[in-house]
Amino acid sequence: MLTELHIRNFAIVKQLDIEFKNGMTAITGETGAGKSIALDALGLCLGGRADANWVRPGCDKTDISARFTITHDSPAHRWLVDNEFDDDLECVLRRTISKDGRSRAWVNGAPVTLTQQRTLAPTLVNIHGQHEHQLLVKEEHQRELLDQFAQHAELITEVQESYRNWAATEKRFRQHQQRKEELAAQKQLISYQVKELNEFNIGEGEFEQLESDHKRLTHVRALTENSAFALNALYDGEHNNVSGLIQAAHGRLEESAELDEQIQPILALLEQAKVHIEETALELRNYQDQLDIDPEQLEVTEQRMSQAIALAKKHHVAPLDLYQHHQQLQQQLDELERAEEDNEQLAEQRQALRTVYRQAALKLSTSRKKAADKLSAEISRAMHKLNMPHGEFVIQVDHDDKATATLWGTDEICFTVTTNPGQPLQALSKVASGGELSRISLAIQVMCANQNTVPTMMFDEVDVGVSGPTAAVVGSMLRSLGEQCQIICVTHLPQVAAKGHHQMQVLKQTDGAQTETQVWQLNEEQRIDELARLLGGDSITEKTKDNARELLIH
Fold it and tell me: How far apart are CA 493 and CA 481, in angstroms?
């Protein structure tokens, strides 16, 4: 709960240090005194929009801090631990605004972003403004109130997750559908090209081999003649072939070696040369055996080369790259076929996710209808207490499983009311007057607050348009709520203020040059005087003080 609020140089406040207690605290004061100043300052601490106009004239900056006590099992404590701001069971928010409009924020002494501060804020305080009833006629706000009362956050999360999954798959499916004709045409072309290349079926490195074979086959006569000449020169010639000359040289040098041993290494080299010549001759004979003028083989080779060149030209690639091009086209065709399979899977997945979403939306709708019946009855009873004895309030929840999907399901929620006998239920905006709408809004806020887990709730003049016995009922409702959580209520009604466990008075003082607002904790006698002022205006008599004593709860 909120325990302390420290305000420096904020609007007409020079310095305020306010302590808050458990239960219901009523804040009263004259019109224009600045009764809502504490709520405005706290709003800034909770991440509200900064404005340089909030800085007190003549000062460099506004400085506001709020201290809260929290429990171990509270959402606020979990947030602090998760974000490494834990400081045992205390949470201190601080906000400064300089006169040039720059703003800074801290949580437990550590600097934070406004986004972080705004995320933490709802776990600490729930503020209901004096214009809350104006939001009541908006469909989105009606849904939020019903969901808050129903306390089915897990169902909303389930709907939102299933919606996002379905929406993402739906988007991908539509993208595939848009490209379907384009992909089909592309697949038809590539299928034809792949079929053509499959029929030709060129192998890896085949064109290089064809070029080599063609060159050999077209020059086989020259190759035969050259190899025969070489074989005769090296070994087969009748006169002066290399092998015979080496043999003759070897014989002469062998005789010389008997006379000079230095010739032995030369003999060894000649013997090696002789062996190499013999091996060369053998290889040449084998080569000649393979050389054969085969016109049919040459024709087949030339035909395949021509086909390869023609296909390469058709596909705008070099003949040497035809094999690689074939593999790339086959890969593209495989990917297109997989895309078709993916599209079929997407269609199935899309339908499955649609079913998951519709089921989640139906579960949420069922929970809403159950909560709507309960909340409708409670608000109707509260209307009776608030001087609308014939009032009937009904929350209509219409589910349409064919409606456009949203993050919040497919329900149409409408708050309907009748305040007079014989009148049919109609939408809240069409039936209720301003005063009635204000009272209905208050009843809804109080009923929904019973389901709230936030430790501190603030009401800023939500009793506008209420008076007399009805005001006393409003005060009793707020006091009853104060038994469950901390209630801070800004009011101008003595019947409401008297129901508070505690009361503060806001005073505006001026010395003619400057104006300053102060807030005072009132004791019992001071409360009687303040209630008497609220009852009788500036003239406080013993009679008004007696009336104040009767109002005050002991």
Answer: 18
Cα 114 versus chain centre, distance = 18
The Cα–Cα gap between 64 and 44 comes to 8
Q: Rounded distance, CA 190 to CA 197, Å?
A: 10
If you count them, how many residues does the chain have?
Answer: 554
Going by DSSP bridges, is the β-strand pair 13-19/2-10 parallel, antiparallel, or unpaired? antiparallel
For 376-403, how does the pLDDT look when each residue is reduced to its tens digit (9 = 90+)? Answer: 999 998 888 888 888 899 999 999 988 9
Q: Of 407, 393, 344, which is closest to residue 177 (Cα–Cα)? A: 344
Burial of 372 (0-12, 13-18, 19+ CB in 10 A): buried
Mean pLDDT of 15-43: 85
CA distances from 532 to 3, 499, 549 (A): 28, 14, 9
**pLDDT tens digits for 488-520?**
988 888 999 999 999 999 888 776 667 778 888
Name the burial class of residue 344, with classes exposed (0-12), middle (13-18) and buried (19+) by CB atoms within 10 angstroms of its CB.
exposed
Strand order in the sheet with 411-418: 392-399, 411-418, 426-427
**Integer Cα distance of 413 and 427 in angstroms:** 10
Q: pTM to 2 decimals?
A: 0.62
Cα atoms in the Cβ-side hemisphere of radius 13 Å centred on 18: 32
Sign of CA dihedral 125, 130, 135, 136: positive
